[in-house]
């Protein structure tokens, strides 16, 4: 059974006359799940994750920032493209295995067609200076979007300064030392999980 979607809930007022955030919603139908991820995959040029954060957390309000960070972390650790893993987890979260299949189909439908067209065009015009400059400009824009997403996700870890250390180590290993991302995950991932497990047992 598909979850019921609230119909335009009014903002609740807190004691300080500051409107609280509206409650989370959920995709009402599988078709909505398909079209949201289909739309999402067409928005990004080399980097879709910033758009995913904005649409799933801010626009659709399907996930909280904390939930998005958790799913994004798992999608980066698991094999395969990050966004594909994220789509599978979001779809499964709301509609089980059917939602996972539909979200995956939404992610892949349009790119399968576009990639063939782009590949043919790129093979013919890759050496054209205008095309080369356009691709360089797109790369710069994508870098800015990724930085903006990181800033928006920072509140999810700011309340626990111990998480800053793991973020700093990962950034230093990949961004400064230019280490392979796989080895950084292999080393830091188990250590972070073991430390979190130890802290939970103590609590």
From TrEMBL:
Parts forming coiled coils: none
MF (Gene Ontology): chromate transmembrane transporter activity
Record's keyword terms, sorted: Cell membrane, Membrane, Transmembrane, Transmembrane helix
Keyword Cell membrane: yes
Membrane association type: Multi-pass membrane protein
Keyword Aminoacyl-tRNA synthetase in record: no
Subcellular location field: Cell membrane
Subcellular location, principal: membrane
TM stretches of this protein: 33-52, 72-94, 100-123, 135-157, 177-198
GO terms under cellular component: plasma membrane
Pfam family, one: Chromate_transp
Region span, Disordered: 1-22
Family, per entry: Belongs to the chromate ion transporter (CHR) (TC 2.A.51) family.
UniProt xrefs under PANTHER family: CHROMATE TRANSPORT PROTEIN-RELATED (PTHR43663), CHROMATE TRANSPORTER (PTHR43663:SF1)
Protein name: Chromate transport protein ChrA
